[in-house]
Protein 1
Amino acid sequence: MGPTRRIILCEMLYLSVFSTGAFAANTAHATVASASPYVLNVFTAASNLSNGVQVKSDEAIIEVRALSDDVLRVRVGLNGKMPEDASWAVSTEARQSSASVSAESNASTVGFRTGSLRVKIARKDLHLSITDLEGNVLQEDAPGWPVTFHDQNFRVYKTMPDDEHYFGLGDKMGALDRRGQSFIQWNTDAYKFQESTDPIYKSIPFFLTVHQGRSIGVLFDNTWCSSFDFGKQTSGIYSFGADGGALDYYVVYGPDPKRVLNRYAWLTGLPPLPPLWSFGFQQSRYSYETEKRLREIATKLRADKIPSDVLYLDIDFQQQNRPFTIDSQKFPNFAGMIHDLRQQHFRLVTITDLHIAHLPDSNYIPYTTGIAGDHFVKNPDGSVFVGTVWPGPSVFPEFTRQSTRDWWGQLYANFIAEGVSGFWNDMNEPSVFQTPTMTMPIETQHRIDEPGFSKRTANHLEIHNVYGMENSRATYEGLLKLSPNQRPFVLTRASYAGGQRYAATWTGDNSSTRNHLRLTVPMLLNLGLSGFGMSGADVGGFAGTPQPDLLTKWIELATFQPIDRDHTEKTSADQEPWVHGPEQESIRRRYIEERYRLLPYLYTAAEEMTRTGVPIVRPLFLEFPAATADGHPLDLDTPNQFLFGSDLLVAPFGFPDELDSYNVVLPPGDWFDYWTGKKVAGTLKIQPQLDVLPVYARAGSIIPMQPLTQSTDEIPQGPLTLRLYPGPNCSGSIYQDDGTTLNYKKGDYLRVNFSCEVTDSGLRIHVGVMEGNYHPWWKQYAVQVAGWDSDSARVLIDGKQDANVTSSVGANHMLTLSFPAGREVELQVNHKLR
Ligand code: GLC
């Protein structure tokens, strides 16, 4: 028993044992025997701290501190000293927070108690356990598997109960539940990744556990190549470790999983509120190569009445792929084109990759100013590191320095002046061509010059996994400096824990195949559980060309995802919604239109995410943590179903390559078919149909919707619709603001809460006060009550009849009430029989 062998997967990556670039997940089992592991299992001394406990094991120090009643930090220092207390992920404020604790020691353990947790370390062997105050074990070391070091490499082993489940770690491959799988964290350009590919683009070393209805979160804050194993290598044990850096992890207590996400956001930050237009339909490809072609796409989207907001320019708009240039042959009138596109209500997002073309003596401003400011990453001998990427030989900014990030941010000034609305930071793992490791050599030197860190040089092993995040941070902070009152929109491919503060993300180079459509659901759900709630997958798939039905199904599903961006690679066929003829296009249009109708609901969910850390798309267990008798996550019984916001359940076929019927398992309570208004419950048998994506609304929800528009610039004409699905705890809300500026922070927003109650005689509906200074576009409400089983209704507003209120019962038992907006009202709706 015990960890005498060392897991060597990271070294296998650097040494590129596999030259293909795709590292199969089963490499995670590679181990080597080690001569003398250093094992932390000897108790030498202990002392109480005001916020925790410190234990010595010969020269090693183990500290467990409470940052708050429900957030613990565990750190280990070797050779008698603690490592530097700095982090790219966790804010200084959170790291320096402290909760007072009550020391609790006895003959066999030392430890303490907070307002909600108890920590014990065994004197016998340093076994660490964390329980709630009722004694339920939340996390404990695996007995006989102490923390073990092999030189710089170390590993932590935890007991893995048979009925515990694991979620998070960003958009890693595999099933939603990480149980039985293992993963490497090493940001990797994974073109055409497949279901067995690991690692891929991001490293987000955070996971949630769900055990008998109780959740905790674990952030292993280590930027080096690290790995996680959930019982794949040794059954009954999960483990995590790294190839260097500090042993530093946080345990975040729920027990409700939403609370875990909230506390994780307290540690690593919330995503900023994205601009409203980024929730519109986005059309991209690698590449719209000329101004003429981009204008054609814009014109066709409007002519075909495909609601849309954003067009993308990929690398070919640049001169020879050089970032921050424009090919004036292909785009002769760049600013004029952007101006014209804005007239058509389009926004433009351009790619700005991080690699700067290595062009001495060419008056290429990013290179000359970068060299002048000493802004590029260096080789050990002090020369600038040059690697090949899209522009050919390229140099790489030192994003770990504040001054370099400031310089990078300034590079956006011209694009901002020309009217570009958002920026796309790609290739920032960083991807480097023609090297066996597909990235910088590990000896490359990075200078750290950053508040909180000691000023020092680190090699690429330490910085690799945060490089992409710091690239997107430089962009985000730069954009805010250039346009201080505009919300930046940055899309990044690589990132690390905390990267949600700076950028939205997408899942990289997926394929136009049915299994990739299925993969988008667990990938986006786990991203959301890892802090990245603003995310998307290339709609239609990047590599290859989708069959007509597949593109249609993909557009249907993406309607209910945070980012809805159609994108494809250079050599593939056209992939815009109109390809494949009018029948397919009309289905696609219908779904995109539905997304626009649902924008008030989607935007309200987005705002909730930016306050609470709860993502827009959610696994079912997040909303229904107590839905199963034994507390297992409901999602294990309902593969590929998910929630869009808190109230809409989306149920795509788990295996879209089969045509058989499938079961949808609804969470407890009543639901309504979103498309037909019919009340449903329990398990439903669904026969797949090309033009139907099953969606259900929770009984007890009120969903704000708007009249159809062709873009988010357009002011909706007509009432704000409140789709009301009667049921228990019936409520809903709407959040609105101007959609682009930061004025909402100064009170220019609007929030209205709605509630309803089913009574013996009908329904009581409450429309709350308008909170905030923002004046909405609607003058009227149209409340649509689903499942109304009377022929008509008698409506009282604030107890009186009012001529301004109209009611009618339409198709699908839908009662519609219309009345003026503007003040708090209470409606009483009674059955009125014929
Ligand atoms: C990478 C990106 C892809 C982009 C291409 C060209 O493969 O992941 O989205 O289109 O580079 O810039």
Protein 2
Amino acid sequence: MKNVFLVMGTRPEAIKMAPVYRALKKTPGLSITVISTGQHRELLAQAMQAFDMSPDIDLQVMRPGQSLSALTCSILEGLEKTFERHRPDLVLAHGDTTTCFSAALSCFYHRIPIAHVEAGLRTYRIDSPFPEEFNRQGVAKLAGFHFAPDAQAKDNLLREGVSPIDVCVTGSTAVDAIDAISEIRRPSKSHCDLSADKPVSVITLHRRENGSETLKGMLTGIKNAARLHPEMTFVYPMHPNPSVRRTVLEVLSTIPNLVLREPMEYRDFIGLMARATVVITDSGGIQEEADYLRKRVLLLREHTERVNGLGEGRTCIVGTNSEAITAAISRSLTSHLEAPSDAVPHESPSLKIAREIVKRLA
Ligand code: UD1
Ligand code: UDP
């Protein structure tokens, strides 16, 4: 029996690792342990519950508003104790968070092999996204095996000197998560009071590199667009990050057609996106999901590491300027979009990852 440890700490990691966890659990010869760093608390619990997943080991490092240094130190200390007690044959971590980077560093210190899921995404701008671009480049230096979501991510890794035999292009496990959640039947927990026949658009924003002034400008751009389009209901499930939430409440609380929400159950959120006219976001993960649902996406970032939707013109990089945001939202609500091509049939990325892991551990 080989011991494989999955390390995760934030909402997107739990969602995109859940299908990998389910695929690995069904694979003979593997014993799977989930370590939660607890970088997130409520968000992580909500995402894990959606997939009936729970941590075997929980480091519980979250402290309100903690600094990146404090977070990194707590995760490194917690993982050190865990890795000294148990010696996994392989660790899997996902993406570009502080949890992922700290897991890779801890594995390196303890000489434990680590495989990186969602490897090779790059903007090559070290502060955009901050600190995630550094985190993922750092993880690439430390990982022994790289699961790339697409060919471009693989090329990035090869250019950085990773050997082709250590890279496998799998597709994004975000797609598996959407497929999996539509099969799990259970009543919704996120209260939904939106009338089914009214048009809705979705907003999510929480990136660290947008300081409070930039964020205020972006939110003002959204507010002005909402005022110009009273026929549209804009739904914004707010991230709990206190500095982001404070600014969102300050700028957006009094707009009648702008509904501020607590974080939604993953399945309800996917359902909301599926009926949305436009998805307005600074999240790369949501860019992928919305594109899989063939939605129009406005990316409120200067750069993206993902190609999803850009080629077909469904996804548009709008940036962070207030007036540009108002104009882009207005345009997207009043202009016609070509009927999207159908999603291309694909093999499950998570099953591909499970298969490759078995090969590597043999
Ligand atoms: C982190 C990741 C980011 C990812 C995002 C997903 C890093 C550096 N950033 O950013 O890449 O896109 O998660 O959401 O790893 N909080 C709560 N409850 C929660 C979660 C967060 O109260 O369940 C509050 C806490 O005060 C916490 C703060 O939000 O200190 C910020 O959380 P943190 O994980 O440091 O950064 P995010 O901005 O969430
Ligand atoms: N999500 C969710 N409920 C919400 C908002 C988002 O379940 O209210 C999901 C979304 O579908 C995506 C993930 O959370 O899978 C994105 O997480 P987040 O915005 O925290 O991080 P990011 O993608 O920016 O790294």
